[in-house]
């Protein structure tokens, strides 16, 4: 039996880091995908092949002993294979750059959970999401689960730690130009740095959380109006709050300046400290924004919102 699934990557439009402290964040799925094919095999091994390397192990190895970014696939395969006298072969194909805040690991976990679990039963989206978050925890224990949620359901959503996610009905027509600093970041490390910043600057941090809360409320209204220009101003404002908590750096600041030249606004997406930024555009300034980045030799590409989320074949 062969089972195949794909899931989109994501950007955090607003609220990263502050979301860890209870503020609402807004995320959207993007039209770049990870596709996972899973197949039952007779040999009792778990074999994973991907464009970032391969992993082949016997079942039942302790997860803590596995040092590989492909560990979530092993976790999922090992969980599902229990009591089956067989193995699983997994092939991963990704259009999403790794470790730069575009949700590649969440998309892997969601597509992996779907492809692998569906070898055995017709698993619901809710259950697939549950498995995906469990798998993601093998690489980032404190994940909020927001990334896997948006990769599963697609579209645009608000998320907070207390109430989970709510899908936002609007389907904005903007384009995002994503530029990559090519500096890999560890989300866990940057989240810890923000925690130390907060501990040293409680009052300032609390004010920034309030500001971010107000900004996100304004954004929810602007999304209903499809007001791209005003959304751009909010993006620039959010970037200032991210700079204030220290998750930017010189290279990111340079990229933000380039992005702001012709777009409506530009900010970090995800943990920062490296990774990607995005610039908000529409048809009128898309090409010019891409050219600005390319003229300065920054790798960039444009995406739109993915409305489908997890797809199974
Ligand atoms: O860089 P990413 O995509 O892993 O984003 C992390 C988002 C944070 O808000 C910094 C952490 C979190 O768990 O929400």
Strand content: 25-35%
Q: Which cofactor or ligand species appear?
A: (3R)-3-hydroxy-3-methyl-5-(phosphonooxy)pentanoic acid
Contiguous runs where pLDDT drops below 50 for at least 5 residues: none
Order of helices and strands: EEEEHEHHHEEEHHHHEEHEE
Explain briefly what this protein structure is.
The chain is 39% helix and 26% strand.
Describe this structure as you would to a colleague.
- With 313 residues, this protein is α+β, with helices and mostly antiparallel strands.
- It folds into two domains: 168 residues, Ribosomal Protein S5, domain 2, CATH 3.30.230; 130 residues, GHMP kinase, C-terminal domain (Alpha-Beta Plaits), CATH 3.30.70.
- 39% of the residues lie in helices and 26% in strands.
- Strands 1, 2, 3, 4, 5, 6, 7 and 12 form an eight-stranded mixed sheet that branches. A four-stranded antiparallel sheet has the order 9-10-8-11.
- Strand 9 and strand 10 form a beta hairpin.
- It is globular.
- 46% of the residues are buried.
- The model has no long low-confidence stretch (mean pLDDT 94).
- It binds (3R)-3-hydroxy-3-methyl-5-(phosphonooxy)pentanoic acid.
- (3R)-3-hydroxy-3-methyl-5-(phosphonooxy)pentanoic acid (PMV) binds next to helix 4 and helix 5.
Topology:
Blueprint: E1 2-14, E2 25-41, E3 46-50, E4 53-57, H1 71-81, E5 87-94, H2 104-117, H3 125-136, H4 146-153, E6 156-160, E7 164-168, E8 175-180, H5 187-200, H6 202-225, H7 228-244, H8 250-262, E9 265-269, E10 276-281, H9 286-295, E11 299-303, E12 311-312
Parallel strand pairs: 3-5
Antiparallel strand pairs: 1-2, 1-12, 2-5, 2-6, 3-4, 6-7, 8-10, 8-11, 9-10
The protein binds (3R)-3-hydroxy-3-methyl-5-(phosphonooxy)pentanoic acid.
């Amino acid at each position: 039996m062969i089972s195949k699934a794909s899931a989109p990557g994501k950007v955090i439009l607003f609220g990263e880091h502050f979301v860890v402290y209870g503020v609402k964040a807004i995320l959207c799925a993007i039209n770049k995908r990870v596709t996972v094919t899973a197949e039952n095999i007779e040999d009792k091994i778990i074999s994973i092949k991907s464009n970032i390397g391969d992993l082949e192990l016997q079942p039942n190895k302790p997860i803590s002993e596995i040092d590989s970014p492909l560990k979530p696939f092993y976790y999922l395969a090992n969980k599902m294979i229990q009591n089956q006298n067989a193995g699983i072969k997994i092939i991963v194909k990704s259009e999403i750059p790794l470790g730069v805040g575009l949700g590649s690991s969440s998309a892997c976990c969601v597509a992996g959970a779907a492809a692998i679990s569906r070898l055995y039963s017709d698993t619901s989206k809710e259950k697939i999401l549950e498995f995906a978050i469990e798998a993601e925890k093998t690489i980032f224990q404190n994940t909020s689960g927001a990334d896997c949620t948006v990769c599963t359901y697609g579209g645009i959503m608000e998320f907070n730690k207390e109430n989970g996610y709510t899908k936002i009905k609007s389907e904005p027509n903007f384009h995002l130009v994503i530029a990559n600093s090519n500096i890999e970041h560890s989300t866990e490390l940057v989240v810890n740095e923000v925690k130390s910043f907060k501990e040293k600057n409680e009052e300032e941090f609390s004010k920034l959380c309030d500001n971010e809360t107000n900004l996100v409320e304004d954004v929810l209204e602007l999304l209903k109006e499809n007001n791209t220009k005003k959304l751009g101003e909010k993006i620039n404002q959010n970037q200032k709050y991210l700079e204030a908590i220290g998750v930017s750096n010189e290279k990111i600041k340079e990229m933000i300046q380039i992005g702001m030249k012709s777009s409506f606004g530009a900010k970090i997406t995800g943990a920062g400290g490296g990774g990607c930024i995005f610039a908000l555009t529409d048809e009128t300034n898309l090409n010019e924004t891409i050219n600005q980045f390319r003229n300065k030799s920054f790798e960039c590409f444009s995406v739109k919102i993915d409305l489908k989320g997890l797809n199974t074949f």
